[in-house]
Records
---
Amino acid sequence: MNKRRYIKVGWLVDGSGRAIQEQMLLTVKNGVFTDIDRYEEPNGLDPAIVTDLSLCTILPPFVDCHVHLCMSGTTDQDARKQQLTADYAAIRPRIAEHLHDHFSHGVLAIRDGGDRQGHALRYKNETVAARKEPLILQVAGRAWHKKGRYGALIGRYCQNNESLSSAFSRENDSIDHVKLVNSGLNSLRVFGHQTSPQFSADEIRELIIQAHLRGKKVMVHANGQLPVRLALEAGCDSIEHGFFMGRDNLKLMAEMKTTWVPTAFTMKSYADTLEPHDTQIERSVVEKNLQHQLKQISLARDFGVPIALGTDAGSKGVLHGESVGEELKLLMKAGCSMPEAVRCATCNGAKLLGIEEIGLIAKGKPANFLVIRATPAMLPEKFSFLEAIYLDGRPYNME
Ligand SMILES: [Zn+2]
């Protein structure tokens, strides 16, 4: 048990954003990396005790910082309506499938962005011991939105004119983080259309103070300049989507080190799955939305905004697990190098979720990593095709 194990890898992408390292030797003891060095020969090691992954690239397990486990990525509108109102008994097996989809695509930690009935929270509470895959699940329960504004699909509003912070402080759901909705949806019909904020800066600040006192981070759905600015100034932990937030907000995020989860693939997916009779979505608009978001990502990279990958899996056409590879490709299209894009999908996500077990391949860290049989140049196309997942230094049996 206490023996050292050695793993030779062709290429290492360690999650920190640094350049790809070739021909590396990883030493593992008690499930933890004790050494990471260049592989040199002769090295006195008995080849029989070295696991040979020299045709493979390894990288840390992925973190998807924005999913909705109750919804599948189906494009069937009737099925989507059903999922929104389905009871827990119907949703429970769906959630189990989605978790399996995440795990089999190397996504070992996910942050749920809320559902209207709190099913994902209930699932987490009721299946602690019974869940099949070793996957870290963090949930928001039901999101908060303003009465009469967008958000009923994923949450609830404060009753009887109660303030947001007072409603929150009465709640005793065992959530991991708080989800607040502070704008409308990004328009799929009018390019650049912005909606007003749902809450005042004071309302948001009071909620965030309460949440932070209870050790919970606050993720804010916000599109457009003003909704994003108010959430940032109030001290939120992450901006979700952030379409059309603008340059000044990106600068502010860089200064405040607030994480951005841009969910760009949602727009590509709307375009890719658009049906001719669909009058709710304008193809040219979603395509322009995507291009605009990629420009914002490029600016964010220049300014040094911490970007964490989130897919909004469960949105139309956005499949659980598989879409992480799609979002990675878009980060690269926006100008991130492959190691930088991987950092968004690993280390930055792990930081946002406050987890230590995954995020980096480094000395002293648990030996958890993904193995892809591909050179780095082939990697973007192969993100979804895993050769193996190693946990504590050993290949995990996927079935
Ligand atoms: Zn969402």
---
Amino acid sequence: MKKLFLIVVMLCVGISEGSAQQSELKQHQVVFGRNRFVEYQPGDLPIVISVPHDGHMRPEIIPDRTFGVTMRDNGTQDIARDIIIEFKRRTGNSPHVIFSHLRRKKLDVNREEFEAAQDNETAGIAWNEYHGFIDSACIRSLQTYGICLLIDLHGQNHPEKRIEIGYCLENEDLTLSDEALNDPLLVEKSSLRSLLRRSTMTHAELVRGSKSIGALFGEHGVRSTPSPSIPAPGSYKFFSGGYTIYRHSVEDTSGVTGMQFELNPELRESGNASATAAMLTDVIIEYMKIHFGRNNTQYIQ
Ligand SMILES: [Zn+2]
């Protein structure tokens, strides 16, 4: 299936050229989809970051969507670009990063195609390119390193100041005991299912234990759920993980570990982008070393 999407992307991409960012990335060729609606910054680490909801383009050739959510995740694109710079500075290497530049009113790449593009052919092409680029990045990571961490980067405006971590586990799943969380039926729907296969930890430990990504956020003074201190979202609204994480790390069983980060507004304020990117880079590097093994993470030492 992934090879098919790779071929589709290669056929669809009309432009492949450098940009201002290329001077930062040097050896990497930035790739744009048709009309520059989608951008792929190839990296060389087994880390893929997708940024679906901070696009600014409102082309007339795509009519406004008539149903679905249209809220923009302000600040997430700047944070992702700062993450690339942070990784490059600390490790000499970069994650793969994929952006949608279309306003969510025109295309929502974090939905299945019918709701995302609403029967518009141009929007449908951009949707396919976006997910094709993610497929390409994941395939490259798996082929080179045998591992891949996919992070879908979002922003939320819920009253609680915390990062919501989506593993495709609903609020009611997370209210269960650790024992229940380890049930194979819940593991099957979790975006950590591939990581669990290579881990000595249980599913519940990966979701909210002392080495979970929520725990690492806590060590940086950032509240998040699920985590050891907030194991379940409780009665507050919570985004559990959307189409992108489901498609690439649950439905696709080739080995991608996925998680959706929903950043609270304070982390996304324009003056905080660099600090947030530095914190996220710290946490991701630490997570890779803990969960993907020293032999597999020498590239980020
Ligand atoms: Zn979003």
